[in-house]
Amino acid sequence: MKLLIFSAVMLVLVLNPAHAYLDPGSGSAILQGIIGALAAIAITLKLYWHRLLRFLGLRKPIDDSDDESYDDADQSESRGG
Within 13 Å of residue 77, how many CA atoms lie on the same side as its CB? Predict the structure, then answer.
């Protein structure tokens, strides 16, 4: 533990400025990556929203009988009846 603290203190004491430059293209690419990651998270949550609510106990599980009656209604509508 002492070695870890000593290493952290030494690392902070010997830091030098990097003199780095990020051009607008790099900043744009970083921003695009962040926005893309947020969009992917949002789409994933949308796809699994009901499962997440059931897992958290905020929504009751769906009965299988309701799903079968819904499927029958869809099939009759697609046949034109």
Answer: 6
Rounded distance between C-alpha atoms, residue 19 and residue 53, angstroms: 48
**Using an 8 Å Cβ cutoff, are 38 and 45 in contact?**
no
In a domain, 35, yes or no: yes
Query: What gap in Å lies between CA 15 and CA 7, rounded to an integer?
Result: 12
What's the whole-number mean pLDDT along residues 9-18? 81
**Full residue range of the structural domain in which residue 42 is found:** 28-60
Average pLDDT, the chain: 80
User: How many other C-beta atoms lie within 10 A of the C-beta of residue 59?
Assistant: 13
Q: Work out the burial of residue 30: count CB atoms within 10 Å of its CB; fewer than 13 is exposed, 13-18 middle, 19 or more buried.
A: exposed
Residue 59 contacts residue 53 (beta carbons within 8 Å):
yes
- The torsion angles phi and psi of 53, rounded to 5 degrees, stand at -65, -40
